[in-house]
Amino acid sequence: MSRSSQVSAVLAQGGDIPAPHIEYDQIGPLLLVLGIAVAGVLVEAFVGRTWRYYAQVPLAFLGLAGAFAWTIVLGVHDEPHHVAAEGALGVDGPTLFLQGTILVLALVSLLLIAERGGSVVGGGHFAAQASALPGSEAEQRSAAAGITQTEVFPLMMFAVGGMLMFPASNDLLTMFVALEVMSLPLYLLCGLARRRRLLSQEAAVKYFLLGAFSSAFFLYGAALLYGYAGSVRLADISAEISKDAGSETLLLAGVALLSVGLLFKLGAVPFHMWKPDVYQGAPTPITALMASCTLVAAFGAILRVYYVGFETLKWDWEPIMWGVAILTMVIGAVIAITQTDLKRMLAYSSIAHAGFLLTAVVATSRDGLSSALFYLAAYGFTTVGAFAVITMVRDAGGEAAHLSRWAGLGKRSPVVAGTFAFFLLAFAGIPLTSGFTGKFAVFKAAVQADATPLVIVGVISSAIAAFFYVRVIVVMFFSEPEADGPTVVAGPATAAAVALGLTATVVLGVLPQPILDLAGHATTHMFVR
Fold this sequence. Notes:
Blueprint: H1 3-12, H2 28-46, H3 49-77, E1 81-84, E2 89-92, H4 93-113, H5 137-144, H6 152-165, H7 172-189, H8 197-229, H9 234-243, H10 248-266, H11 274-281, H12 284-309, H13 314-336, H14 342-363, H15 366-392, E3 393-395, E4 398-399, H16 409-412, H17 414-428, H18 434-448, H19 452-478, E5 487-488, H20 492-510, H21 513-522
Antiparallel strand pairs: 1-2, 3-4, 3-5
GO molecular function: NADH dehydrogenase (quinone) (non-electrogenic) activity; NADH dehydrogenase (ubiquinone) activity; quinone binding
Membrane topology: Multi-pass membrane protein
Keywords: Cell membrane, Membrane, NAD, Oxidoreductase, Quinone, Translocase, Transmembrane, Transmembrane helix, Transport
């Protein structure tokens, strides 16, 4: 008997409602991150403005590091295959791997968010006063006073908390709550750029409006699936599909609408239009956070929904997923060729990579799941490193993200240009980089699942994508630098983020087996139901 049935029976008999049983040790990492977020809000309320930054940064770092250590303990000292919080959350190998990946990438992104050195002294990457109109006297006074934006730290922690909950959600209502906890802080963070304020606020509004539409689709799909199965638990929905006892119209409509909400967060075609504008307008550290952590969380939720809830419906949704994957790979790679802004180019690159990842969903096998987990970790580190490099190349107007401004960067700063070139080669999937290992693993799983035509499209799309990656490298190393070209300035935190991203990209390309084995071990029991 489900808990809702038990509660109904108790109420009918006039008894007391039993207290829910919460396994606090199993969901400790999530609770720790959300607790630190609440503590960050209290810091904003009670600590003086001068000391807030010095309180928020260590608090956020300790929270993320502590949650990561707790995740490791759960994975090492226990066989993770539990349902927690009355069945609302799944604690299993894939979930812990995804949560660990999110926490590590969030720590690296936090280095960028916390940067106050180099050429961004005082205000960092964020507006001094978010409520001030762009270019107004109030904004000028705030910047001159050296006010720093510290609200970004609790907002980031709330977003990370939602990201941790999203792939662990074992029912659709919990998943919807996680989606909103993850998304709402990101809507705010996208509008806080210190430079190009109007573009940043426009990105935030677009992201909010389109995100609200996608959330409505998700919630409507969940309602239809509840009407079909009488439950929002993924395992119960799967059981009802196996019985084939409900209305097929409700089922298929619910699956379609739910998929729209999930694919929007992933940025898959045709639900991708928000991504280039938001990536370009948001503060680059927030773009790095979204391009890495949000992608991992969204794809983890997709894996759980399709592997647990809709696995028995594979023959119905698989053709649609083929089409979405093909369109996402091809359109992402082709449109990226026309981009002249590096952040927009990496946005379309992210869209193409989402298509590569969707081939693992089509595989619906243990190999497909483990290869997707490795791909997410490898791509996340490379992405954070690439955006960190973009924050280092600056001119009088801020970040010099236009491709023409990077002409001759290899002569001005060969180390920075060489590092960025290596990240681009990893995106292209060149051997001895993490990108090659990730693509090979995902494509191999798809071939084993008889999806060879999808792999052929993926290989062709990778070849197309290599063109615009190589174009950037040519501009950096084979063009003459401009007389008023940008300068390369990096604070210590940004340099550390670049070093961590570069190290992970190299190690996961040259010695990938330990992480591949870890991902394989995480999928021993697949997702808990």
